[in-house]
Amino acid sequence: MHTNVVRIRKHGDAAVLELDEVQVAAPDATEVQIRQSAIGLNFADIYQRNGAHGPHTPTPFPITLGSVGAGIVTAVGRGGSGIAVGQRVAALYPGAYQVTRNVPADRVVPLPETISEEVAGATLLRGLTAEYLLRRLYVVQPGDWVLVHAAAGGMGVLLSQWARSLGATVIGTVGSEAKRRVALDHGCHHAICYREADFVAEVMALTEGKGVSVVYDAVGKDVFVPSLQCLKPCGMAINYGTASGDVEAFDLQLLHAKSLIVSRPTLRTFIADAASLRRAAQALFSAVESGHLRLEVGQRFALSDVRAAHRSLEGRATTGATVLIP
């Protein structure tokens, strides 16, 4: 069987993305074959395309980008995975920019009726990231103050809603008035436009000088060090993305005065085996079913328009989650 795929043959800007065709074999004993109807676009794809260091296994060119997609199982291996042909599933596994693909059965999550394939493809990676950030790495408690950078982005809207449902007071930073409205509509109690105000001063004023319990930072270089000033004693700053560049030459003495904690995590550590992946997905789906979290698609691009999709995400022109439609 032949299928469409988006690959790169060198690292670079969005121009290196190429639409191609590859042969897909029958799934082996440990795999299932999925015909994807929705493929997630995440900032990790940009890092991989650029060749930035990160949690990517070195792979020879050509490289198929992407890590998450959803669709219908079209074939199963003989290993008795418990996944059935015709089942609606999502998969977290490298090489997602491909219409039909084989993935290990232990990287597959069955979808409940309440979660569409499009929503799963667009939001599952972010949703699972939000799950460990809010419930495991730092356990948000009622009464916590939380700072979410890029609060109108794909991750920001999930973190803000879920943190609010856990009893936190949520402060978000955004880059425009339009995005401020999005943030306030998706869980933020307060939204600060960082282009118009000093977010550190605003956060400290809102918290009456006490600071926040945790900072969730997907921006990196531009905001991480100033964010430390927003933390209360023993607070935690979590840098889980680097949209503005890596945090470099970090001085540990910046943590000393208030006994601060910093972390640079990656999702794959928290879903390393099938059981942890399924538990995290169930927690996410339960949050949706209980009304605490809205999983939404902000933008849709055809897979053939993947270059435009990448440019929009890099240019911070997207709001919420983006999905590629084969």
UniProtKB/TrEMBL annotation:
The keyword NADP applies. Residues 12-324 form the Enoyl reductase (ER) domain. Pfam families: ADH_N, ADH_zinc_N. CDD domains: QOR2 (cd05286). It comes from the Bacteria. Gene3D superfamilies: Medium-chain alcohol dehydrogenases, catalytic domain (3.90.180.10), NAD(P)-binding Rossmann-like Domain (3.40.50.720). InterPro entries: ADH-like_C, ADH-like_N, ER, GroES-like_sf, NAD(P)-bd_dom_sf, QOR-like, Quin_OxRdtase/zeta-crystal_CS. Keywords: NADP, Oxidoreductase. The keyword NADP applies. This is Quinone oxidoreductase. It comes from Cupriavidus campinensis.
